């Protein structure tokens, strides 16, 4: 019975004569029936809505569609739906089976990051789900992506240093054999900038833009941004003020009226150290010292 066919259509990407095609492959039942297949290609136009871009009737167990940058572009999510019928009774059709959505373009893994101001490096993988063609004027089969970061929020320009730092400003996606929906991949590390300020959780985004591309397919394409949430960690405070009164990180209070250079604090776990220099500012009446210099590492 045609209703019991399991066609299981799957979309993959291929390079054919230097051009990018998507291929819909489905299972051919091991029956003696001479079957034909109707393959309908659709793309996601708006969330929840698809539009048809190609319809094929074929005897083959596959169908191709070209990513030409016009009706099918990078950034599209594509589906193929397959229906089988016998040549002698075309009105008897199998139930249509739809593939999983295939996102054609650059993907980031993970798609969003939640990190903390703890100095840890987080790996962000950048991959292309479609193969990269060699440009005609050179032997390079790669896409160069320019990476940038932007802090989001009302006062992002007033809050001082950026929220995040990247290990590289540019990455090259070099062509590789396609496997597991990856045809080229690179990685960068993302670190939250420790700003010692209690400024709450902040949101940034990472943007990747193809540069130096003559290929129409890539030239008009900007991948989706990656959202990065930086969790604020509480910071300690210690003080040395007036003639110097000192309050330590854990709230103890001291006075230091001496003149000279002193070690104010030193971390036992990382390279962090603060020295202060004090001079006489009390005159003849009282022995009072004041901060006149600071050095920090």
TrEMBL record:
Keywords: Disulfide bond, Signal
Residues annotated as domain VWFD: 236-297
Family annotation (InterPro entries): Dev_Signal_Modulators (IPR050969), Ig_VWDE (IPR057885), VWF_type-D (IPR001846)
GO molecular function, one term: signaling receptor binding
Tree of life domain: Eukaryota
Keyword Cell division carried by entry: no
GO cellular component assignments: cell surface; extracellular region
Entry protein name: VWDE protein
Source species of the chain: Scopus umbretta (Hammerkop)
Gene that encodes it: Vwde_5
């Amino acid at each position: 019975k045609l209703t019991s066919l399991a066609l299981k259509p799957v979309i993959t990407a291929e390079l054919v004569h230097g051009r990018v095609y998507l291929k819909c492959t489905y299972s051919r039942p091991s029956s003696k029936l001479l079957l034909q297949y109707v393959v309908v290609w659709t793309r996601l136009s708006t969330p929840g809505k698809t539009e048809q871009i190609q319809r094929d009737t074929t005897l083959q167990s596959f169908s191709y569609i070209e990513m030409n940058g016009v009706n099918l572009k990078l950034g599209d999510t594509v589906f193929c739906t397959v229906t089988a019928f016998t040549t002698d009774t075309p009105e008897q059709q199998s139930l249509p089976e739809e593939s999983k959505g295939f996102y054609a373009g650059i993907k980031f893994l993970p798609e969003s990051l939640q990190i903390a101001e703890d100095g840890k490096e987080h790996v962000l993988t950048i991959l292309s789900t479609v193969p990269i063609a060699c440009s005609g004027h050179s032997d390079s089969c790669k896409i160069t992506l320019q990476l940038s970061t932007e802090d989001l929020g009302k006062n992002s320009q007033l809050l001082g240093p950026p929220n995040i730092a990247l290990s590289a400003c540019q990455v090259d996606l070099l062509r590789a054999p396609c496997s597991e929906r990856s045809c080229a991949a690179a990685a960068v590390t993302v670190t939250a900038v420790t700003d010692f300020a209690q400024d709450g959780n902040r949101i940034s985004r990472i943007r990747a833009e193809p540069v130096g591309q003559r290929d129409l397919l890539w030239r008009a394409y900007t991948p989706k941004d990656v959202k990065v949430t930086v969790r604020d960690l509480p910071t300690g405070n210690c003080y040395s003020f007036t003639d110097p009164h000192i309050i330590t990180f854990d709230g103890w209070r001291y006075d230091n009226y001496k003149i000279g250079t002193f070690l104010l604090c030193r971390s036992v776990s990382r390279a962090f150290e603060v020295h202060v220099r004090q001079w006489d500012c009390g005159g003849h009446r009282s022995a009072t010292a004041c901060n006149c210099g600071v050095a920090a590492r």
